Amino acid sequence: FYMKFFCFFFPEIKVWEKAAGKEKWIIKPPASARGTGIRVVHKWSQIPKKRPIIVQQYLSKPLLIGGAKFDLRLYVLVTSFNPLRVYLYPDGLVRFASVKYNDDINYLSDRLMHLTNYSINKTSANYTNNDCADSCTGHKWTIKTFMVYLEKEGVDTKKLWKSIRDIVIKTMIAGEPHINTLTKTNTTTRYSCFELFGIDILLDENLKPWLLEVNISPSLQSSSALDIAVKGPLIQTVFNMAGYHLPSNLPRYIVTDMAKLYGYDRICQDVRLEKVTLSNQEKAKQALYANLDREDYIEDILDDLTPDDVRHLVTYEDELSQAAKFEKVFPTKNTYSYLDFFDVPRYYNLLLDAWEHKYGDNREQGIELLRKLCAAKIHLQQPA
User: Fold this and answer.
1) 1 pLDDT above the threshold of 80
2) Residue 61: other Cβ atoms inside 10 A
3) If we measure between CA atoms, which residue out of 346, 57, 334 comes closest to residue 179?
4) Concatenated DSSP letters for 6-48?
5) Predicted local distance difference test score (pLDDT) of residue 237
6) C-alpha angle 211-217-222 in degrees, rounded to nearest 5
7) Residues 98-112: pLDDT tens digits?
8) Is-cis flag, bond preceding 90, omega within 30?
9) In a 10 Å sphere around its CB, with 0-12 CB exposed, 13-18 middle and 19+ buried, how is residue 95 labelled?
10) Which of the chain's termini has less CB crowding within 10 Å, N or C?
């Protein structure tokens, strides 16, 4: 689902395909953005030799609209990596190059032809703004409008979106081991962080989606009514789902005044919900189930929910209640096959898999169970 790429560190290694000179490659500096330093090349001699760069196979036969190349900017919210919880926003941006596409090597230097970044193309004399979110005009469309356009062209957009969803899930799983390790090392509570990713997708001439890159800091600036229509609800929902928690160590007079101002008994979360220490019983349960096959855990893991289990499930359902337009792509009752792609089985992924299996089609029944457990204050119990 991604184009072949290499990470070159000169002068240690020199990797190049026999097809060099015939195939085209994109070179880009690592950890960059907005098209900075990106070029399309076809010769080894065109590659800088004194700095680390990423070399990515160039997709020479992209799908064109009006003769121009374009890409899709998707917005993906990850609220947790253990368990992995991934949400895909149903709208996004379609960004067009401002010069019509030509795959002849004599045009490789034309960045306005080969790159779709808004920050590059907005400087073009050919660039046309689109201030209407429902219009297929100009050099920027919404993904929703784009899908309507494709449907009119006879494209199976449900199949296409399913393929895009697959790329999103696999991309997050690919980065899961490293991110999960760093998250565990650098955070003290599961409520500390979330990430909104900007994922760029390119469609080839056969409508197959390919992953271009993942941006950890997607631009949320809104320079037009179209941008506002997409990003406004997006940002609002992200904050609602993240559920910002006031720190419990605020001065008491601030806590008291704010609670009174907003009409609450308390505004800080019970500190017991933030604890990550497991009891011996919880450790034993996690060790047991993490090593079981799906048919051996799918029914039993929910039979005797521990306080830690309840806290995770409450967080999950609270988050879902605020998801609004976001589509939950992982976990669902149908995504258990992706568990085979993880480096190691993680207990919380198995817990949510079983929860989706049992309550995915009847969330209210699952929520009612959690209400009863919380009424009994199971979620607040801590190891002795």
Assistant:
1) no
2) 10
3) 346
4) EEE-TTT-----TTBTTB-EEEE-TT--TTTT-EEE-SGGGS-
5) 96
6) 100
7) 989 888 888 777 788
8) no
9) buried
10) C
